[in-house]
Amino acid sequence: MMEAIVLTRRSIKEWDEVISFYSKDFGKVELGARGTKKIVSKNSPFLEAFCCVEVGVVLGKDRPSITSVQAIEYFSNIRKDFQKSWQASFVVKWLEMVLKPLEKNIQIYNTLLSWLHFLDKVPETKDVLLDAILFKMVSIFGFEPSLHNCVLCGRELDEEKIYFSYSSGGIICHRDKLESRDENALSIDLPTLLALRYILNRSWREIMAFTTDELSAATHKIIYPYVVYTVEKECVDWNKKPSGI
Fold first, then answer.
1. How far apart are CA 207 and CA 210, in angstroms?
2. Is residue 37 very low, low, confident or very high in pLDDT (cuts 50, 70, 90)?
3. What's the CA gap between 55 and 28, in Å, rounded?
4. Which CATH number fits domain 1-112: 3.30.310.50, 3.60.15.10, 2.50.20.10, 2.40.50.140?
5. What is the mean pLDDT of the chain?
6. Does residue 81 contact residue 71 with C-beta atoms inside 8 Å?
7. What residue segments make up the domains of the chain, in order of their start?
8. I want to staple 68 with a disulfide (CB 3.0 to 4.6 A). Which of 18, 53, 56, 106 is the partner?
9. Residue 177: which residues within 8 A CB-CB, separation 6 or more?
10. What is the DSSP letter of 156?
11. Taking 60 as the threshold, does the pLDDT of residue 245 lie above it?
């Protein structure tokens, strides 16, 4: 049995699908699922996006196939809340888009699972919670930004004029911005910098309690373009939600 979180599902035949998972032991995998589009399918309800499941697997001609599915966590409270469900669906679709197959990283799995558990239990969600998991994920991928010292000269920056440089991978001082001619570096004030540090290193609960709407908006202006830049995948601005949320 393979423990995994469902990322996406897509049709391949009249009644069959391919299910993409992020598994605990193998990273991202795709499995064939026969008959899951039929109303009588026993497995289909547990193959919805962001379900945590145990999956039986057998090798097949084109790809491995699912033999059985047992739910570990359905996250029913997320599914009852439109905003929570939208956030969870966005995260798993984003992971499906950016991750390569069979590259195991237990930190990705544990971070996603802990975030889903928290989202399921918290009374209501905030925009910063979505920013936080994507910011943490790109850091796990190897793109953790420097948020204490100038990337270019190494000096600690806390009070002088500071910029965030996507191409350099973190904050840079005013002098190095001028010398590097980095026109895309964004000016960042100290409260926003401290909030970015907090988001990157604290628990989901602490982030929710600490971050105001104003700080959330300010940090999003850094986090969104940084995530897009590092993964090199175009993606909609997740704070510009569809109508109804």
1. 5
2. confident
3. 14
4. 2.40.50.140
5. 92
6. no
7. 1-112, 126-245
8. 56
9. 163, 165, 185
10. B
11. no
